[in-house]
Hints:
Layout: E1 11-13, H1 18-22, E2 27-34, E3 40-47, E4 55-57, E5 61-63, H2 65-68, E6 85-86, E7 93-100, E8 107-112, E9 117-121, E10 126-128
Parallel strand pairs: 1-10
Antiparallel strand pairs: 2-3, 2-9, 3-5, 4-8, 6-7, 7-8
This protein binds zinc ion.
Amino acid sequence: MKGSKTKDLPIYYFRKDRYRKTRGGKTKLIDIYCGSCNALLLIYQKDFPRGALKRCYVDRIFYPAKYSSIRSDKSIQDTDDMPKLKCRECKAVIGTPMRYTNHGENRLAYSMIKSKFTKKNSSHGIGKDR
Ligand SMILES: [Zn+2]
């Protein structure tokens, strides 16, 4: 992103719901990169920002559309309907579909393969509360 002026970055409005509340209410926007080729994989809202990233819930993905659209895609009801989380550049598999059912939640997610990705505070978007 040339010049990379903060004000030119897209704004992503944080999702605020009981899932976030359960995790203490704090959240942040992170970029997740392929560990092999460093391509941007996801822009993601991480609730409980200090914890490790073990899974990515599909309802927290903002980018790219391939994955962010899963939450509203009626044809995707179960893990079998989900694509694997793959790097679009080198095709490495970064995460596998799962359903998270702890603590009374029922959310589709990706179980992240720890050695396959890196993460940092987002430089591709600005997270805001409405
Ligand atoms: Zn890659």
